[in-house]
Each structure stands twice: as structure tokens, then as C-alpha cells.
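This part of the workshop introduces the protein records we will be handling. An example says more than a description, so a record of this kind follows.
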Amino acid sequence: MPIHEKSLIRPEDLKTHEQLVVEGVDVSGHWSTFIQTRVIADYNEALEEEVAALPGAEHIHRCWQCGSCTNACTVNALNPDFNPRFWIYLVRLGMQSELLRDKDIIWQCVSCNKCTYACPRDVNPEGVMKALSHWLELKGHTPKSPSMIFDEEFSEQVIRRGRIEEGRLIQRFFKRTGQTLNQEWLVEMVRRLLRHLPLALLARLGLARLLAPRSRGWAAARAAIQDYVGAQQARQRRALGLGERLETGAADAADTTQH
């Protein structure tokens, strides 16, 4: 899986000499440009297995580096440094230190799925990007992203009550991400709801917000979901060498359902 793109050579790895003569030939300036020898500081031979253990990256081993994913990528068209093919290459080689150099942009995937439609090997590059973001967070290389926090809150509501109450979901999400409810768009949305929704429906929404009802007969489904989620998270954490401890959000949800 060779890398040929000049764009993948980082500027800090290019070394030039203002004055250099080799065997009587003046090669000063760009003629003496060399690529600094790559030193792998923290090679992780289990990196591919760790990422493949997370949802979406199960078929990362199928990649044959054709570049269709990056060529079709919406984000790459705006930022050439966003390169799914290159990151899959690094994961499969276990080059963790090189991968972490891009940890601040990997999460920028917009899930347009153009890469997945273009992939001839059914690698599901979009799923790999989500798995990489999850891997970075689980391993402590990056803080939890707002989208991850929203997913946790959404899942907790489903597990606890078998339904979603939008007002409670937004409130808890904003609280965990340090945002205030006094958002211009949110205030405008509430105003429009108050103007156009029937009073009876508004009353039901208000009661649902206060009482947080559960779906009928949800106990058995909740227990099955908890068992499945717990087993999947335990498997993922073992693969990542993180032990058996559940994710904080899922553990909180499980605790809540016991009361």
C-alpha cells in the first residue's frame, strides 16, 4: 500500500540546505530538498484490530487503497488534509503517532456517504471515520465531541423510557456541552410553536416534559437492550485494552433504570 501523493508529505518533514555542494555540484536551495526519515515513536501493531472492533469499521481490512473514498469526499474538496484513504492506510500499518497528528480533523466527517457509495470493496469508509472518532475519544486522545454527547443522551432516553422527549433531550444536551438555552434559533422555534400549535397539543407536550412517561411494556425490551449494549461495549473495551468498564453514559442509564 504505497503512498505516492506529494500532498501527504508534511511541510515540517521537508529539509533543504541554503548552501550545499555534492561532488562538486551545487545543489543549494530546492535542489537539496530531502524528506526527513520517518521515525515511528509509538507503533501499535493492534491498531487495526482496535479500530475494527468499533461499529462501522468491521471491513477496514478490505481496503486496497484505490483512493475512491478520498476522491468522492465532500470534506476533502474543501480541505485536502482530510484524507480517509490515508488514515485507513495508517491504521492498517499501525502507525498510531502519524494518525494522531490529524486527530483534530478526523471528526469533521459529515456522513454524506459519498465515499461509501464510491468504494468498490464495501469498506464503508464513512463508518470507518466514525469508528476513528470513537477510538480517539475512548483512548483519551480527544475530548468527547458534541455529536457523541448527543448520541449518548439520545440513547439514554431510549433505554430508560422507550421514547424520546425532545425538550428534555435538548436541555440535557445543552447542559452537558456548556450551552445556554437562550439560543436565538431555539427561542424563535419556541415562539413559532406557541403561535401555531393547538393548545391541547402544547398541553400534552408540557405534561410529557414534566412527567417523562415510559412506553408501555418497555421493561423486557429495556433489559434486552441493556444486555446487548453492555456486551458490545465490553467487547469493544477489551479490544482497546480498556477493561470491562462501561461507557459513563450507558452506565448511568443502566443505573437509572434500576430505580
Remarks:
- The first strand starts at residue 14 and ends at 17.
- The first helix runs from residue 47 to 52.
